[in-house]
Specification:
- The chain is an alpha/beta fold and 302 residues long.
- The chain is 47% helix and 12% strand.
- It contains twelve helices and eight strands.
- The protein has an eight-stranded parallel sheet.
- Helix 9 runs antiparallel to helix 10 and helix 11 packs across helix 12.
- GO terms for molecular function: N-acetylneuraminate lyase activity.
Length: 302
C-alpha cells in the first residue's frame, strides 16, 4: 500500500516568474522555491494555472521545473503539471518531469475540443505511460477546462495503477466526497473552501492563493486537525475576504499576488504574461490593502 504522507498538507500552486523582458527568470524561480521552503509549506504544484502554463512553451516549462527541482532537493513535495493541448508535448513534459525525480505528475483534460471520455482516458494514460515510475494525479477544473471529471471516467482511469487521485478544483464540495469514495486521494482546489474540503476528506490542498498567504492556510489545516473548527472557520473567512479584495483589481489576480509578495519581503516574480492583464495604476491601493490584511491576519492567527 502506498504511503501518501508526502501529499498531506498545504501545497501552493507555483507562480510564473518573469524577468523585465517577460522571459522566464531562472533566478526568480529559484528564489520563489526557497521562499516556499522558508514558509513551511508541504510542497509545490508546478506548471498549472498559477504557473500560466498555457502561455508558455515546452522548453520554458522544462526550464521552470528544472530550477524548482534544483532548489527543492527533497525539502518539498513536487507535483508537475505536464498537460499541453496535444499528447506529444504532454508526453515529453511527463518524461522530463520523471527524469528530474518529481513526486507526481498531473494533467487537465485537453481543452477547446470536447472529447469523449474514452479519448480523454487515452490522453491521460498516454501521458502516464511516458512517466511509468511516477504517480499520476487527475486535475479536475471544469470551469476552465470545459470538461468535468465523472465517476465513470475516474473508474476507467483507476485501472492505471499510477493514478493515485484528483486535484479537485470544481466548486461542489460533494465532488470530493464522491471521488474519495472510489479510493482516490483528493486535493482541495478552490481556496475559498479549504476548510470544507478538509472536512469532506481532502488529503490536503493545492491552491493559487496559498503562495501569497501560506501561513494562514497552514494554520487552517492545523486547527482542523486539532478539532478547533470555529477558529479555523474564522481564518478561512478572512482568507476569502482577502481573495475578494485581490480579485477586485483591474490587473490579473496573479499580478496582484506577485506584487503583494514583493511588498511583504518576498522574491520578485515579475508581472504576468499577455494576454493576462498586468497591474494598472489604480490597483496600487488594492495591493497595499491586501498586504495590510495578510500581515494583520498572520499576526492575529499565526
Amino acid at each position: 500500500m502506498k504511503d501518501f504522507t508526502k501529499y498531506q498538507g498545504i501545497i501552493p500552486a507555483f507562480y510564473a516568474c518573469y524577468d523585465a523582458e517577460g522571459n522566464i527568470s531562472p533566478e526568480g524561480v529559484r528564489a520563489l522555491t526557497r521562499y516556499h521552503i522558508e514558509q513551511g509549506v508541504k510542497g509545490v504544484y508546478v506548471g498549472g494555472s498559477s504557473g500560466e502554463c498555457i502561455y508558455q512553451s515546452v522548453a520554458e516549462r522544462k526550464l521552470v521545473l528544472e530550477q524548482v527541482m534544483a532548489e527543492a532537493k527533497g525539502k518539498l513535495t513536487v507535483i508537475a503539471h505536464v498537460a499541453c493541448n496535444n499528447t506529444a508535448d504532454s508526453r515529453e513534459l511527463a518524461a522530463h518531469a520523471e527524469s528530474l525525480g518529481v513526486d507526481a505528475i498531473a494533467a487537465i483534460p485537453p481543452i477547446y475540443f470536447h472529447l469523449p471520455e474514452h479519448a480523454i482516458a487515452k490522453y491521460w494514460n498516454d501521458i502516464s505511460d511516458a512517466a511509468p515510475n511516477t504517480d499520476f494525479i487527475i486535475y479536475n477544473i471544469p470551469q476552465l477546462a470545459g470538461v468535468a471529471l465523472t465517476g465513470s471516467l475516474l473508474a476507467e482511469m483507476q485501472k492505471n495503477p499510477r493514478v493515485i487521485g484528483v486535484k479537485n478544483s470544481s466548486m461542489p464540495v460533494q465532488d470530493i466526497q464522491m471521488f474519495r469514495d472510489t479510493g482516490a486521494i483528493v486535493f482541495n482546489g478552490p481556496d475559498e473552501q479549504l476548510l470544507a474540503g478538509l472536512a469532506t476528506g481532502a488529503i490536503g490542498g493545492i491552491g493559487g492563493t496559498y503562495g501569497v498567504m501560506p501561513k494562514l492556510y497552514i494554520r487552517i489545516r492545523e486547527l482542523f486537525l486539532e478539532g478547533k473548527m470555529e477558529q479555523a472557520r474564522e481564518i478561512q473567512n478572512e482568507c476569502c475576504r482577502i481573495i475578494y479584495k485581490m480579485c477586485s483589481a483591474k490587473g490579473n489576480l496573479y499580478a496582484v499576488m506577485k506584487a503583494a509578495i514583493v511588498k511583504m519581503g518576498g522574491p520578485d516574480c515579475g508581472s504576468v504574461r499577455l494576454p493576462l492583464a498586468p497591474l494598472a495604476e489604480s490597483d496600487a491601493p488594492i495591493v497595499d490593502e491586501t498586504v495590510a490584511a495578510i500581515t494583520a491576519a498572520v499576526a492575529k492567527y499565526c
